[in-house]
């Protein structure tokens, strides 16, 4: 059982340690006293709590469906919102890292089944309020939507996949060109023919691309660029294959 302001709130709720590496130290004064001659030293503010809110979910949605919707991101918790005992079509999703919120927001208006799902930024206090409401609704019972096992984490998947020499990039600026991607991988011997920018059905950049490296050793080494920035965007890298590359290119035609 988790705790909220020192009170037990219900089953299957974990307490998020404010001192953990994900969320930084507990918030306090913005200054700390330093006895050195330099006086006061400003502290860095803690990173934002990594939570998003989803709206428009199918009413038979499960935690596994949300994990698949955000495939590749670290899902820490999924809380389905109920009103008067019925699922409202909304949920909160807590992610592993603050930077993953930006990737989650890129899924706004993507479809889950036949529904278009909206994704919004949210706040720690809204998530905790929803937890309290769930406990009040359930009277200590478990939510019927919280039965599916969690998907493996982003890093676990990347470590376990066999390299083929092809990487998929996600989170690219829509204005990114092949030259921008070549510059991103400037330490590797690549040509424009090695870079494949993916377009959606409307002929617009999708924010994804595939890169063919000379060999698997280069693609493994290139994974050190995972979560680095291109322009103002964090870029995620995934091991891919020739089949996935061919399918992505054909979808954009």
From TrEMBL:
Residues 19-30 have a biased composition (Low complexity). One of its GO terms (molecular function) is RNA binding. CDD domains: RRM_hnRNPH_ESRPs_RBM12_like. The lineage of its organism: Eukaryota, Viridiplantae, Streptophyta, Embryophyta, Tracheophyta. InterPro entries: ESRP, Nucleotide-bd_a/b_plait_sf, RBD_domain_sf, RRM_dom. Keywords: Repeat, Ribonucleoprotein, RNA-binding. This is Heterogeneous nuclear ribonucleoprotein F isoform X3. Transmembrane segments: none annotated. Residues 165-253 form the RRM domain. One of its GO terms (cellular component) is ribonucleoprotein complex. Residues 1-30, 137-159 are annotated as: Disordered. Residues 1-16 have a biased composition (Basic and acidic residues). It comes from Punica granatum (Pomegranate). SMART domains: RRM.
